[in-house]
Amino acid sequence: MTTERAVNIVMIEDDEGHARLIEKNIRRAGISNTVHHFLDGTSALHFLYEDPNGPVHNGPSLILLDLNLPDMSGTDILARIKAENSPLKRAPVVVLTTTDDKVEIQRCYDLGCNVYITKPVNYESFADAIKQLGLFLSVIQVPDPEAS
Amino acid sequence: MNSIRQWGLVAERSFARIVVTLVGLGFLAVLVAGIGALLVMLRSEEHTRWVNHTYMVERHVSGIRLSLEEMRSARRGMLLGRAGGAAAYDAARRHLDAEIASAERLTQDNIVQQANVRELRGEANVLDTQYREALRGDETAHLDELARQQTAIRLIALANRMLAEERGLMKDRAEAQQATLRMFYAILGVAGVLLLFVGGASILIIVRYTRDLSHTRDELRALNTNLEGAVRVRTEDLQRANDEIQRFAYIVSHDLRAPLVNVMGFTSELEAALRPLSQLLEQVEATNPALVSADARLAVKEDLPEALGFIRASTQKMDRLINAILRLSREGRRNIAPDDVPLTPLAEGIVDGIRHLVDERGAQITVQPDMPTIFTDRLALEQVVSNLVENALKYLQPSRPGQIAILAEEAAGRIRIRIQDNGRGIDPRDHERIFDLFRRSGVQDQQGEGIGLAHVRTLAYRLGGTIGVTSQLGEGATFTIDLPARYEGDKERLA
């Protein structure tokens, strides 16, 4: 992450255990960026678009998105982020979910998701995957959000 | 449905009975009319005979009168001395006798007429005697003229009486004839009315029956149409229910994975945390053993690793089961791509694929060389057959060399594929159970989760078929897959 401003990581994940495991393993990969964790879609969207510390008003961000949320489908959030006139349409979105349904994967890429990762059930694989994701995150470029 | 058939049967029976009765009545009416006509004809023939008879009698009576007249004129001729008078008289006399004899013969059946004839003959003899006496020229003849005239008058009267008698008889007979005719007309009339009634009733009943029939036919047709609709609706319902179950299985298994990830994840974290703890314990033990209690030692060295091991093993098993459910539900949702699949090459391919296993087990697999071709999903069928063959191979009877046969036959649009083995067999009590998910049968000496046959059954259903097993414990098993020869499609699956 070589941009001037630190990149915020926004994690939308309804399972606290998963969130904790993900954060731990990202940290193990050497990522020290702030991680904002949200348990539901509504508060996540509020943070993304409205919050003064959120990505729209405050610098670049990377979004980790789970598809199974209690209040809305993750694909709806994805569709809003990647919509034509969204200020966040260039923000990288990593879909990180348990679903490995082919149709669902296709749909997410159609909507504009940048990376789709299925959470491995086996913990070792899961930890490896997250660590590798962390390494990956450490090298990708994240654009600034469009001026709103 | 049932009530309509019942009603139809009853109506048909009563209809047949009524029609037969009516036709019988009609025949009876015609028969009565015919017999009546015959009787009347016979009677009128007899009547004609009697009329003729009366005419004959009348003719003879007239003949008698004529003869008397001739006798009288012949006698007058003789009196006047005309030549041939005597011969003419004799001829007239003979003529009179002949006529009387004829009349007597004709009226043999009539006592009154016989008496009249006898009297007539007597009077005729008297008159004859009187005439002949007069002709002999007796002087008394002049005196007897009156008696002669009276005799002649009596004779004429007698003849007239006979005539009247015959006329009377004829009148009676004519009346009888009239009565017969009237009776005939009455019978004819009754028969006619009866026929008219029969005809009318028949037409009425047939019309009503036909109307009922067409009504029933319409009803049946409507029912039939409804039935098709009902079947379609039911099929859609079933389809929907099935899809719902598939979706349910998918969601459940899918959502079960999320907590499982946590359990496994934090178990690993625990294991990782245990490592420095264990190292610390060893260090302390090395430097200052007095600080380490037996309990702490036991907990770190034995209890914690054991507990973690069980948690790990159980979560791994649960993971496999959930994956099995997921796979099943995905199979149920997979799109079927039917194609022409010749069974013999398919079976041979499967056998080739597991050749090493077959050789390892020392078994022998025979594939029927002329199996039919089926139009269905190749992948699904391949999975079904290979699963069953692998099962057969897995559960052989160790005491005898394995013999497995793959057979197929086609009948009435269905193809039955049989996988036959001489393995250890399946207890008949378990024949249903083994197709359930996670259920197994017999000695548990083989690896497996109890998923294979459940998977096979799901696939068989998916292809529009069924699967069954016949087996006795220790005597091998035969699995039979019954599939439609042509897969007819999902009928637009409801997503």
Automatic annotation (TrEMBL), chain A:
Q: Name one GO biological process term.
A: phosphorelay signal transduction system
What Gene3D superfamilies does the annotation carry? 3.40.50.2300
Q: Which InterPro entries match?
A: CheY-like_superfamily, Sig_transdc_resp-reg_receiver, TCS_response_regulator
Q: Which Pfam families match?
A: Response_reg (PF00072)
The chain residues annotated with the modification 4-aspartylphosphate are: 66
- Coiled coil ranges (UniProt) are none
Fetch the CDD domains from UniProt: REC_Rcp-like (cd17557)
**What PROSITE patterns does the annotation carry?**
RESPONSE_REGULATORY
Kindly state which keywords UniProt assigns to this record, in alphabetical order. Phosphoprotein
Task: Report domain Response regulatory positions.
Answer: 8-134
Specify whether Secreted is a keyword of the entry.
Answer: no
The protein in question is named: CheY-like chemotaxis protein
What is the species of this protein?
Novosphingobium fluoreni
TrEMBL record, chain B:
Q: Name one GO biological process term.
A: osmosensory signaling via phosphorelay pathway
Is this entry keyworded Heme?
A: no
Pfam families (UniProt xref): CHASE3, HATPase_c, HisKA
Catalytic reactions of this protein: ATP + protein L-histidine = ADP + protein N-phospho-L-histidine
Q: Which domain of life is it from?
A: Bacteria
EC number per UniProt:
2.7.13.3
Q: What class of enzyme is it?
A: transferase
Please verify whether the record's keywords include Transmembrane. Answer: yes
**Keywords linked to the UniProt accession:** Kinase, Membrane, Phosphoprotein, Transferase, Transmembrane, Transmembrane helix
CDD domains named among the record's database cross-references: HisKA (cd00082)
Q: What is this protein called?
A: histidine kinase
Tell me what organism the protein belongs to: Novosphingobium fluoreni
